[in-house]
Amino acid sequence: MGSASWLIHSLRAQPLLIVLRPGEPLRALPTLERLQELGLIHVEIAWQPKPGWADQMRELIDRFPALELGAASVCQLQGVADAAAAGCRYAVSPLLNSELQQRAAERELLLVPGVMSPSEVHQARRLGCGIVKLFPAVSVGIDHWRRLREPLGAPLPYCIAAGGLNPGDVLPWLEAGVDAVALGSGLTAALQAAADAGLEALQDVLTQLGR
């Protein structure tokens, strides 16, 4: 599978990802412009099993070379194929699926699997996954990852907490032991309610992170 080291290195510099669900990738253009202005680096665009998704995603990657754009919500083999065809360096799944991991490896695509239970974390580690997504994070609670360390033994994979979190959760979750945080619906709701307020909340997080 694609090496996780480059993404881990990038996330250590800015342990934050933003997940967008525009339906069609090009609809994310205005939001991506605002996020880039704020200094965000890692943005996931939700994969959709629609014709043209890969072409639109490739156009976004070409337009925003300073962003690390990946594919989110990859649950099918076609999603792996589309992410690779678009030129994504990474994709993220809510699932831990060995067939998806194998196909991603064949295409030299880093696929970050979703995990929740100790068994899933253990399996991901056995599959060689250097980075995982704790999903949905809000369902297991802020201390979940820390509590896995002793019974499973070190080292655990690099962990991105995702699912139901909002900007105010970023620092507490990082302090609780996860390595990075992904914001999706929680940030989208803030932006929809008050775009300026949502962007200010995100800017505050970046300031607190010192990035």
Largest sheet: 7 strands, parallel
Shape call: globular
Report the C-alpha radius of gyration, rounded.
16 Å
Instruction: Quote the average pLDDT.
Output: 93
**Terminal-residue CA separation:** 30 Å
Spatial strand arrangement across the major sheet: 3-2-1-9-8-7-6
Structural class: alpha/beta
- Fraction in beta strands: 15-25%
Number of helices: 11
The helix content, as a percent range, equals 40-55%
Number of strands: 9
Helices and strands, in N-to-C order? HEHEHEHEHEEHEHHEHEHH
Low-confidence stretches: none
Give a written overview of the molecule.
This protein is an alpha/beta fold and 211 residues long. Helices cover 48% and strands 17% of the residues. It has eleven helices and nine strands. The chain has helices spanning 5-13, 29-38, 53-63, 77-86, 98-106, 118-126, 137-140, 144-152, 170-175, 185-193, 195-209; strands at residues 16-20, 42-46, 68-72, 90-92, 110-112, 114-115, 131-134, 158-162, 180-183. The protein has a seven-stranded parallel beta sheet with strand order 3-2-1-9-8-7-6. The longest helix has 15 residues, at 195-209. The protein is globular. The mean pLDDT is 93.
